[in-house]
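ok here's the first one, seq then struct tokens
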Amino acid sequence: MKEKERPVWVIGHMNPDTDSICSAIAYANLKRKITGRSYIPKRAGDISTETRYVLEHFGVEEPELVFDVRTQVKDIEYRYTKGVDGYISLKRAWESMRSIQAHTLPIVDKNGKLEGVITIGDIAKSYMEIYDNKIISEAKTPYQNIIETLDGEMVTGDAKRRVTKGKMLIAAANPDLMESYIEKDDIVILGNRYESQLCAIEMDAQCIIVCDGSKVSYTITKLAENKNCTIIKTPYDTYTAARLINQSMPIRHFMCHEGIISFAMEDYIEEIKEIMAKKRFHDFPIVDLEGKYEGMVSRRILMNAKKKRLILVDHNERSQSVSGIEDTELLEIIDHHRLGGIQTMSPVYFRNQPLGCTATIVYQMYEENGVEIEPQIAGLLCSAILSDTLVYRSPTCTEVDKEAAKKLAKIAGIQVVKYAREMFKAGSNLMNKSCEEILHQDFKKFNAGEITLAVGQISSINGDELQIVKEKMQKYMQESFAEQGVSMVFFMLTDIMEESTDLLCVGNGAKEAAVKAFEIKEPAEDLWLKGVVSRKKQLIPALMTVLQQEDD
């Protein structure tokens, strides 16, 4: 088996915001320092322009994008059976299979690309189902294979040549009778009789195989050289040599090379199990994206496959998580949102605090573990807090968040107000984005009884820009509503400086729910919510209360 290291992925929610990305990076870094093991930050969606600005500002690479976290072939401890050249003999292939207890051998070219496979069954058929005396030439058997298989010695000839013509026969008759059945380019197995050897060479045999280790005379050797006839001497008797010689044929002649069922490293094991169940093969080759052979996988290996290991940050709801999370080994959840009901098979470390930002919790964990925070990591954590709390304007912001941001800003060497303006300005560059990009920039789904609602939010320091975007988004939300797969869609256009939100509503009963939730007495076409800037602490709780009352 090829041992596979099992890293832990640290990943935030879909449509990630700055807190989701920065907390994943910072927490993975913390876990690596504490444990010395592999923790890798990932992301479950496209990065916003605000987040990209933050990462570029502090020189940090974007985490890899992940669409699905189900177990893949590359995650399992598959068997590495070394690939072999297609011209090795059946005998060598059989010996190799026995030595490593394999049922299948992969055949690869000089660049490592998979050419075919040969099984024990294929080798058995080569003995039981072939009666063609021309099979040695039809298989284009290298002379080197014949020498190895017969434990032979080449008296004269070129071992690098291949047999491409003629049939295989045993010279058991006298020379007069031999002349009637030996043809040009035949391979003749015979004993130590001088007359028989001479006759075969004179009849233009391409090769004579002299058995019982008999000495080949100088005269016969010279005559063979002049007639371009190969001589191979073997210690075996004619019966044994005749039985063994078929084992010299190259495996490429018998390999399966069309319709090979192989799997890619990226394939999900749940899907390949279904394919395996329909086939009777014991082993299946694994290839990379370029077709290069990587190893072999069997049903038994899949039975022991281990799941990906995950830590979730900045969310704990299934609807916000990356696809396939139910098929993973969930280890931890670090979050600051309401409890969303993710179910686990075993207990996990769950840390949830009523703070303005997950990054604040991560900062606390650095402090608690006595781990020094590098300027880069401090910059990411500080940026996440400033973003999530709208520079302390959000009602979700606590004194703990403020204190953490101040300390982190000092480590990172940034001036909070100036830096925050630059960050929000980069993030509010909305004019060059499509309506779809704007809607899903920070887009989360929630469940309220039988109702599923989605809430998107953009924040900007430019009120005029928000007004222009609002006009585009009203029409787009109506047109794309059916595609969202929810009962209601709400979209918050939050003005950071004014500390207010324009709320767009789509869906049956959506506007009515918002009007009731915020006790708006004279609702206009769109709803303006003074002092409402937080989705988590202001909008969602109010909407949930109304929708759950109606459901009851």
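and now the second one, same deal
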Amino acid sequence: MFRFLRFVPIRRGGDGMDDGGADTMIIRARAPLRLSFCGGGTDLPPYPEERGGLVLSATIGRYAWATLRFLPEKVLRIHSVDLHTGGQYGLGDRLELDGHLDLVKAAINRMLPGARAEDLPGLEVYLETEAPAGSGLGGSSALVAALLGAMAEWRRHRYDKYEFAHMAWEVERLDVGVPGGMQDQYAAVFGGFNLIEFYGPGQVVVNPLRIDPQVIDELQYNLLLVYVGRRRPGNVIEDQVRGYRERRAEVRAALDRIRELTVAAKRALLRGRLQEFGEILHEAWLAKKRTASTVTTPFVEEAYEEARRLGAIGGKISGAGGGGYMFLLCPWTRKQAIADRLRAMGGEVSSVSFEPGGLRAWRFKEPLACRPLPGETTAVAVAEELAPA
């Protein structure tokens, strides 16, 4: 059963909902981003229903965050701290999905169905993701999961992990209509290294992998994460789905091959065969590029080939493609030379740390006070400036 952490008892409002307890009470949640090693694309309908999807992924030490703060005035304020945008809305209203903060609004609509303004405390929502939009790290899904987690902790709702991940999927794919697969929501909620099976919406099996900690440490040390730029115009996901629905032989064969390689990648990881794992990543990248022409870009191709020339064993774009983050498995003696070259080419290179846990939410009674020094602006102060007068 999925459990949220609790730290302090709090006062309740008239309908049994928490009213924040005190002016300083906050509720916070975080959900990790993920690397999709192999299998991405096989979780896109209708492939799972027809042939069964399979994804190997791991969550990393980057997060989407959601914070709830309670207000004396009867308003709902939303702040996207990293995007420098926000809005103010009426309490108890069903929020209109108008293209601005739709994922946030849809999540709030899910958690406050039919709530009356007189029964609600004023609410301020702060959101932040530790990766740019279109990163390929599952950031939007992690953000939805984090916000749902914070709202569920406030309302004292309990869900098991499968229910929670499916609700996050519904918010993003059904309520808002964002195209995509099913892997991101389950990765964010469950956390860790998983082999995830997909047979259709709500028909998902998450298999946690018991990988030797030394293998994880060695994999982590030898991985590079490279930001290759914002995703280019066009929708890679729609292109891939169209190719599959039109029964193009090369697309169907590529997805079947990716599924086979996912099983092989899992086996290599469990046995600690990282050289083999890197070679499988390379094969999976070649297969992924056959699913749609928009998967790669000239810069991605140039950067990947240069990394391979300098000794990288394999890697791929983490996500649909067309931009975002690429990860590379490199021999430790060549890692620095590869990183230096990719930086010189314009890539943003960073290391990888794995996160074994999934979604977490907690309450904290006395958060740090926001008292910026003269001429200094904190992240919270920036968000507060975005609220309409």
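notes on #2: The longest helix spans residues 249-270. Confidence is low (pLDDT under 50) at residues 1-17, 378-389.
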